[in-house]
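Quick check before the chapter quiz. The format below is the same one you will see on the exam, so make sure you can read both the input and the output lines.
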Amino acid sequence: MWRTPLPRLTVLLVALALPLPTMADAQLEPGEAWPGGDTSTTDHGRNAFSSPAANLDPDRQTPFFIGNSFFKKNWVAAPASTTGRDGLGPHFIARACAGCHALDGRGAPPAAKDGESTETPVGLLLRLSIPGEGGKAGVRPDPVYGGQLNTLALDGVHPEARVRIRYREEAGAYGDGTAFSLRRPSYHIEAPAYGPLHADLRVSPRVAPQVIGLGLLQAIPEADLMAIAQRQAAADDGVSGRPNRVWDAAGQAWVVGRFGWKANVGSIAHQTAGAFNGDMGITSRLFPHEECTPAQADCLARQQDEACWRQARKEAPTDLDDRALARTIFYTTTLAVPSRRDPADPQVLAGKARFHQAGCASCHVPRHVTGPLEGFPELSGQTIYPYTDLLLHDMGEDLADGRPDFEATGREWRTPPLWGVGLIPVVNGHDTLLHDGRARGVAEAILWHGGEAAAARERFRTMDADGRAALVRFVESL
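Here is the expected output.
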């Protein structure tokens, strides 16, 4: 089962003060090949992230496919003959949800040439904020450019700015002397259309993640997440996650955040309506206003014109009606998780053992059991393997964005689920990872880990080549 000779492996593990692998670490658990439980799909092709939950009854698939159409089709400016799909802008970064989540998958930063990218980002956005009143930390929107930089706009309205990304290669080496290089990005906002940028502007790049399994994550009982946080704190090994308490527009309550790179969103309903509004300027009952600041006269004028058009045509004041929003939420809630690829392969099982030995599973908690989720019996009571604790962790200065988000600090990030990672190249044609897409594959993503994950990173970095390859192969099988 092990590709590395046992004597050599024993010497390496003793040197790193790691426990020897157990047979339990290197075995396939019952059900582990089906990360989404009964919802899992066996599609491993280009549409691997686009299937409905496998146990979704046929009579419940109609709202799924209606929601799919609202997720994937482009919106247009109002007024238009395509009523029900007009209302884009005035500022936006995409014309459809699928503009960032192509094939329900993961976005990426624009390609770089000679260490620089000048193309308009698609699938990557910049969050903006300034310190709170009195210099306190917070997520107060920029008074001129709002909470998110919009690089596109309707005719007659200025795009807010352009974005240039520069990369600097930084050399490093594994414990066995094998060289590697990491690329460190820097973000430059150019040609701001509405005046100078704030002197203390905080900027955070965020790549659109794959949309699979969201309903299953929402169904994990809050008490289970709290128990994980308590267990990590009691272990006293440097890993101590904590929940982010956030305001949920759908439930009108403070809840534990589960979604977003900083766990800054508490429900799929809030996430869906918020993305329609922030990314496309599409209003709904939950977010009834576009973000046009007082300094953006052209945006405000276009907003007023649209309101007049809707009133004259006796249309609802918002772009997205409750039924369409509900169908889109149903769609994003019931997207299936793909089954594992070659989960019983000897190298994959060896990589599983290495994953646990390195301490990766402390935060990337493999197994959960979902509780009851109202309206979704298909997602309730499922044993799932998302490899996340949905908690915030200090990831060190190298990954810090310096931007607080509710209770998250500028160094904290939510543990992202790992399911589907190995299919991103198949679905989306790239393998860039982390919150800003700086990592070119699984190994680089691990090597960027710091803070609470520094010890796990070093255990990976100092593994022999066979161990590193096995661990990466395991993650890519998820």
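If your answer matched, good. Residues 6-476 form one domain.
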